Amino acid sequence: MTLTDWTLALGGLGLLLLGMQLLTDGLKAAAGTHLQSFLERSTQTRLRAAFAGFTVTALVQASGAVVVALLGFTNAGMLKLKQAAWVVFGSNVGTTMTAWIVALIGLKFNVGMIAWPLIGLGMLLQLVRRSSPSGSVGLAIAGFGVLFVGLDTLRDAFEQLVTIMPVEQFSVSGPLSILLAVFAGVLLTALMQSSSAALAIVLTASVSGAFTPLAGAAVVIGANIGTTLTALLASIGATAHAKRLSAVHVLMNAVTAVVALILLVPMWWVAEILSGGEQVTNISTGLAIFHTLFNVLGLVLMWFLDERIFRRVESWYRLPPLRSGEPRFLDKTVLEVPSMGLNAIQQELNRVLRQYVIRLRMLLKDEGALKETEEDIATGELLAHIQTYLTKLSAKQLHGDEALLLAELHTSHARLRDLRDIVEKLRAATPTQIDASLNHQLREQLLELLNGADMKDRPEANWASLVSSIRATRNLLRHTWLNRIAANELEPTEGAALMQLASMWERSAEIITALKT
Q1: Which residue, 230, 314, 323, 492, could crosslink 375 as a Cys pair with Cβ 3.0–4.6 Å?
Q2: Domain of life of the organism in this record (predicted)?
Q3: Do 236 and 244 touch, CB atoms closer than 8 A?
């Protein structure tokens, strides 16, 4: 084998990875917020969630990218753990489309007839419609073509490689060699950072005779285990939500791998029969069938084991205490898709607002606030985290509604910082001063505005009416205090302090109204 053959293999691998990257990036950009709305509509039952995962992964051709996106959706509160987990289970089945594309198209036809037109048409569409979703679709089409060129180049390289390799070393002769083949699949996926790319390499090598059937099947099992590495890496330093989903993904693939290894021989026997026999030309189809059987097996196992797994990972990774000031929805995964990041920031801002509402109600001696189970969180620390993520999102290219929402979130963050200053100053006042700054009417108006049960569905006109009433009452109190100061019934310094506190009550009502409307 010459140096040219080695460079051909390296170039084919590079084209394969480049094609998958272009395909993934193009479809993710084209989907935009539609992916979020699709998943929200399609995850109401286990079967629907699994089908959604299958569909998205079959289109994007990158289960790792889908899982990372799901980590972000889960963090942002858009999907619950059970919903996201079943999308992941379906996503595993969706990866089988890569194997079928390779086995039935990439290794059976003259790919030049398919690939080159796809690359040309895709890039033309991308150049002409660069700033529109159709331009991103063009990039995905071009990526699909590059993927086929990479497969064809790899196949040519493996035909040369197999002539100098002792093929018997890639055969299965016992449990140890099976485990070594599984490890080879894990390692290959770890290096490629893509189980789809690893599968494409295994199927291409199998056609050239580099693998015996059972060895190839064991490598396929390893590749499925290796695909969890992307989720594990993405969950490092992430929130408990991301770690839970990542752990579910690992447990699902590990359990399925153990069962598949036990059933390795009968599963391959079924795959061999369905693929048409023992001929070398049928091995790639047989491995594609085996890969499908493996992932369908995983789906069936999860149907019976999912609740146990969910309870286990929830006990492993608990949400941070509310008082810690640590984000519950924000981590690096939500930045993968801007809409996820925006939603996660909104969730964190809502946490801060709820905290200030409770603190104000406690200052007003509301009995309901004293019974609240929500702990006192470090809002200053949380606001600092939110500011960091707002800055990171501002560096991304946002358009239309997303750009407007980001501007609104910046405004909400600034208002909450103002509200924090007001609440801290009110809490610094003595109970006597707080009582003196309120009359019965103002206290009742403020409590009505801060009533959590009414906040969610209160019409905008009612908010405005309440603020207007609070402002009018505060003006009456101000006139009363001014008259008392003029009549020497109230010390000027004390009167000024009371008027300042009353203004803070009014300003807090205005800020909360602005945030809620």
Answers
A1: 323
A2: Bacteria
A3: no
Residue identified by tokens 């109230």 is 490
Residue 394 is which amino acid? S
**327 pLDDT above the threshold of 90:** no
Q: Domain spans of the chain?
A: 7-167+175-316, 337-515
Pairwise CA distance, residues 244 & 378, whole Å: 24
Model's pTM, two decimal places? 0.59
How do residues 332-372 score in pLDDT, each as one tens digit?
767 766 777 888 888 889 889 988 988 898 888 877 655 55
Neighbours of 420 (CB within 10 A): 18
Task: Specify the range with the lowest mean pLDDT, choosing from 99-103, 478-482, 492-496.
Answer: 99-103
The Cα 319–Cα 79 span in angstroms is 16
Token pair in block for residue 340: 């996820």
Helix ranges (H only) for 3-61 are 3-31, 33-41, 46-60
Taking the C-alpha atoms of residue 321 and residue 507, their distance in angstroms, rounded to an integer, is: 30
Task: Please report, in angstroms and rounded to a whole number, the separation of the first and last CA atoms in the chain.
Answer: 71
Mean per-residue pLDDT for 204-214?
69
Amino acid code (one letter) for 263: L
Instruction: For tokens 């509310």, name the residue.
Output: 322
Closest by alpha carbon to 233, among 319, 333, 92?
333
With a cut of 70, say whether residue 136 has pLDDT above it. yes
Q: Which amino acid is at 382?
A: L
Whole-number Å distance between alpha carbons of 359 and 185:
55
Phi, psi (5° rounding) for residue 42?
-110, 20
Q: Are 368 and 358 in contact (CB under 8 A)?
A: no
HSE-up of 74 (CA within 13 Å, CB side)? 29
The token pair at 489 is: 């019934």
Q: What angle do CA 73, 77, 79 make, to 5 degrees?
A: 60
Closest to 283 (Cα-Cα) out of 349, 231, 214 = 214
> Would you call 129 helix, strand, or coil by DSSP?
coil
Question: Tens digits of per-residue pLDDT, 269-292?
Answer: 888 888 776 654 567 788 888 888
Helical axes 338-363 vs 379-394, angle rounded to 10° = 160
How deeply is 440 buried, as exposed, middle or buried, from its count of CB atoms within 10 A (0-12, 13-18, 19+)?
exposed
CATH 1.20.58 fits 337-515, yes or no: yes
Counting Cα atoms < 13 Å in the Cβ hemisphere of 233 gives 10
Q: Answer whether 213's CB lies under 8 Å from 286's CB.
A: yes
Euclidean distance between CA atoms 423 and 444, whole angstroms: 18
- Residue 167, pLDDT score: 40
CA 306-310-316 angle, to 5 degrees, is 145
